[in-house]
Amino acid sequence: MFTDNNATAFKLEQERIKQNRLTKMAQVFTRADSTLALRPINVHIVNQEGGAPAWSSANDVYFNASHINAEFDVQQLLAINGLNFHELAHVRYTPRNGSEICQWVIDNNYWSAFNALEDQRIETLMTARFPSTVNWFVATVAQYLLNTPEAFATSYALLRGRRYLPVDIRRMSREAFKAQEHVPAIIEIVDSYRTLLYPRDTERAKELIERFNDILKSLPPINDEQGDEPTSRKKLHDPNGHDDRPFNGHESSDSRPAPKEEQQQDAERSKSIDKEDDVTSSESDSSPADSDDDSDSDDNTPHDSDSDSNDDSDSSEEGCPTDSDSDSDKEGDVDSDKKLPSERGDFDDDVTVDDSEIDESLFDDDYNADNKSRHAGSAYGKDNNSKEVTDALEEIIESVTETLMKDLDRLSSQITDKPLMGTVNVGSIDKANFSEARANAELVLIQQQFAKELLRIKANYDPAWEYETRRGRLNMRRYLQGASLNKVFDKWSEGKDDVTAIEAVILLDRSQSMQGNNAKEAYKSMWAIKRSLDKAGANTTVITFDSYTRILYSAEDKADAGVIRDAGASGGTNPTNAILTAQNIFANTDKPIRLLFMITDGAWDSDKAEESVRKMREAGVITCNAIIEQYARSAESLERHRHQFELLHQIISAKDILLLGRQLVRLAIARNLVSR
Length: 676
Description:
Elements: H1 4-37, E1 42-46, E2 54-56, E3 60-64, H2 74-93, H3 100-108, H4 111-129, H5 134-147, H6 156-159, H7 167-176, H8 183-193, H9 202-218, H10 260-273, H11 281-285, H12 323-331, E4 363-364, H13 387-416, E5 430-431, E6 435-438, H14 441-454, E7 465-469, E8 473-474, H15 476-481, E9 489-492, E10 502-509, H16 517-535, E11 539-545, E12 549-553, E13 563-566, H17 576-587, E14 593-600, H18 607-618, E15 622-628, H19 635-639, E16 647-651, H20 657-670
């Protein structure tokens, strides 16, 4: 019986788990942010019910525990890492409150206009310096717009300068903007502001902020908010919640934003990585929009700003470059004179935290909202976007989630001690009894052809990276571990030998319904796949299932040349433990490519098993269900036996696995796992 005492104990245990995870999260981001900022940055967890999800000051980043669930699911991990990068961008690039520009903004009550423009500037610089942050920013913005549909009607004022976003969503945002008469001015203002440098461009910034503030004042208020006087407050929904302030900002301190030479490099580099303009040439010809940010779009070489010595207008509030600051642009350089493969990042090593290690100061229930920075999150709304916008946002989120799944999985392991798909208790599994059969010449040839397809799948997205270098592409895993600056970057090197690192599991149905030709072709197909994966250097486990689950080949076992292990066919059909065992294998592997094959006649039913397949698929495992049958099935009949698998293919005889191999490679190409 579940008593009140039980309920209280359960609630306390859940709170303990959440605090433990939040402590790990703070530790992970503290190390990571300090690495990129080149100085100590402290990440704190505070409790502000209904407040902003995140904000920052000169030396600190704050996360609001009331916005974080204890599960740390995919959406949660995308949000917190995107918010963390945004706040770190403020720490790196935003002027402090003692600066001339901030004092002017405070005196004139221009915080909303300043923050809206500044967010676009700092993310422009951050993505230019660290391109691997792009997908995290994309996910943060797309998730916010999807969850806050009423924000879309005024979002163009916030999306115009976020040129890392797909052009289609920026174009739809422009077309949906409530005040079309202001679009040309917004384009001109944002395009001019997003590459300004402080303090050099302070006077130009004042002009742009004042004009932008006038535009915001003319917009209709959010949720029909009424006021006596026009104001720029509550006119925009922002992904980072800047409509929920003003608060104190980046206070004057010994810390300084990144030096002007580094910011100049980032501003120049951004021109070569900006995505397509959402305004076509014909549209821009008829508007006064400033197109300076596109003028060098074909320039793929970072500009060296070391010679830019005539900019000596730094004030004492902004600070001058120190020795370590001056070197920071070298540590973060990306050699952009050649086209690099797609950016990706990694999370790895666990952080171990005992209850006794939890820093209660990280959980400040009495945190004073008046001490918050101006950079903060906001609430969600209820209105609906058009189907076109909703579909586009969902597609964006699905795409970046798939790209970042490996990183999300490892970040989950750091914070929750388990990957996203998790592990389950299935008990010990016995080895299967088997006899041996011979593979004929035709089957050997099929196996060799299948092996050629599999060998196109590479262990890394880009196997020619040199790791732990002093410059190049930011490696997310080592960045979050707080590695030293000479180890947090990876560099592309032509001509390195390709490497294959694959974890695979083959699930083989040996139930009574498989008896006869189905079982014969199933074992032949299994051997051809297993033998091919062995040749590719993969770890491949073969698991049989009927009423029981058995191991036919362990990951260390190799399929002998021409020798097929045959465990027969009998019993019922229960794939659940076999599928859960596969989930455990994938949850504990460090191999970047993970493949799940099932060979079955399709006749099974288990919600728990299907849920496990779904989790594996969403965690980046390529899942293939091979339905074995003597006669061709209709597409509709096959679809009834998909069971959440991504690939669905019928096998009548072993030679049909060749088409499965080609489908597998096409899917891997779509995921950037294969060389084209």
